[in-house]
Amino acid sequence: MSDIEIAQKADVKPIIRLAEERLGIAPQHLDPYGHYKAKLSFEYIESLKDKPDGKLILVTAISPTPAGEGKTTTTVGLGDALNRIGKRTMICLREPALGPCFGVKGGAAGGGYAQVVPMEDINLHFTGDFHAIGVAHNLLSAMIDNHIHQGNALDLDLRQIQWKRVMDMNDRALRNIVVGLGGTANGFPREDGFDIIAASEVMAILCLSNTLAELKERLGNILVGYTRSGSKPVFARDLNAHGAMAALLKDALRPNLVQTLENNPVFVHGGPFANIAHGCNTIIATKSALKMADYVVTEAGFGADLGAEKFIDIKCRKAGLKPDAVVLVATVRALKSHGGVPVKELTQENLQALEAGFANLARHMTNIKERFGLPCVVAINHFVSDTDAEIALLKSKVEEFGGKAVICRHWAEGGAGAVELAEEVLRLVDSGESRFQFLYDENAPLWDKITAIATKVYGASEVTADIKARQQLAQLSEEYSHFPVCIAKNQYSFSNDPGLKGAPTGHVLSIREVRPSHGAEFVVVICGNMMTMPGLPKVPAAEHIDIDAQGRISGLF
């Protein structure tokens, strides 16, 4: 069966009953959205503050390939396995964006028998969080243009407005647009553009806020643009927009509770991409889960060079979190892809390519262990095309490199297929091997932070920036030098070039643009040709998604 067919046949428990049975949450602390998903109350979250924290396990992966790695699937499988062996465990995931669902990547609810349900709801509109984030973002956009139209009392410079518009769909035609055409009744014409909602600073703010009060303050700190006279910064609070924005996000800040196919509790909350944003679920969900369970399994987007680095240097720094162990997901297929094998030939045994592609896995292992000081286990997400010789080679390579690799069959077997992984994770957590550290000092100059990521994590020889980007960095360094950096970079390679597989060295990280996220409190560094509004592929997934007369959806994955 396909993923969606498996999900549609699942024995799903009513979420109110599951919350009471598994977590001891009284019904009055949940607002259900239908029978199988609900939002947690702020009152319940506040009641958890004096409880001890559980152990935090991060799931990350090698650099993505068209072959797929299965990071979310492994996160779900590991969580199910830990519960299966009697460990009270919660899972924390991000919410899928509609753009990838209808584009090329698909959804983000796991796969096979390691899924989160209700799968269709999670991958489509869910509880409306993305809608609320988009409306809050675009309210500010509308108030900016209205302020200019009504006389521009703040003296905003139309050429220096930093705030774009957003939508939750891949649409390259909206990257650069002109607004205000059609005469004086429609405002002043100016250049504008759209980002995808996952790249919105409002998304980042929601994911990094602990309370409604903090959310509102951060929204007020959003940098809108600069004045014509003196180029002074103008913030959302100067437009009196932050109160209304926070009101729109009141419910979106509350974590969403759902379940796995094995009826284990999951928070699915927040959805920034890791290639163009910080790639982690919300702080409020992760912190709440740590109070509610002995073990929390969470993931960070794309490869460890992006998601894990941002999880550590942005999320953990902001939230005071310390991971206890890391699971690094790899597949034989993906490593052969990094070794130069075309997608159509990945099902054929190729030990030479597997050995060549191992360099990518080795680089990520080194970064996790040496750069961040965290113990790590390699989870080999099993495919039926994997041969015994390939698995034996991969396990031996990992052992030679000083690690351990575990074969995982959670896609086919659910939690039962990841019990060995769960046991190894428990061993790492209890080993005391964690020597957690950040990659760079908080007070280092922005350029030094970028260079540290580029040279220590990506293997680059140097960082370059065009004149515009250098001027932006020089301007921002005076006020924002204490902020972490969020690098927007192609996810398929350690380099700017998605075609450079494996573990390239000596390449150059080229910076195209720098954007201050004053409310989120980090600086976005856009590299190469990375776009914050993706486009659809030649054959988008939307062409294969359908619904029948009875309302059953097909083609969603």
Main sheet: strands, sense, barrel = 12 strands, mixed
CATH topology of the largest domain: Rossmann fold
- Average pLDDT confidence is 96
Distance between the termini: 12 Å
Supply Rg.
23 Å
Overall form = globular
Structure description:
Helices cover 36% and strands 18% of the residues. Helix 4 packs across helix 17 (419-431). Strand 13 and strand 14 (265-268) form a beta hairpin. Strands 1, 2, 3, 4, 5, 6, 13, 14, 15, 16, 17 and 18 form a twelve-stranded mixed sheet that branches. The chain is of the alpha/beta class. It folds into three domains: 3-127 and 252-431, P-loop containing nucleotide triphosphate hydrolases (Rossmann fold, 3-Layer(aba) Sandwich), CATH 3.40.50.300; 130-248, Domain 2, N(10)-formyltetrahydrofolate synthetase (2-Layer Sandwich); 446-527, Formyltetrahydrofolate synthetase, domain 3, CATH 3.10.410. The chain has 19 helices and 24 strands.
Tag the structure with descriptive keywords.
Domain 2, N(10)-formyltetrahydrofolate synthetase, 36% helix, globular, Rossmann fold, twelve-stranded mixed β-sheet, alpha/beta, 3 domains, Formyltetrahydrofolate synthetase, domain 3, 557 residues
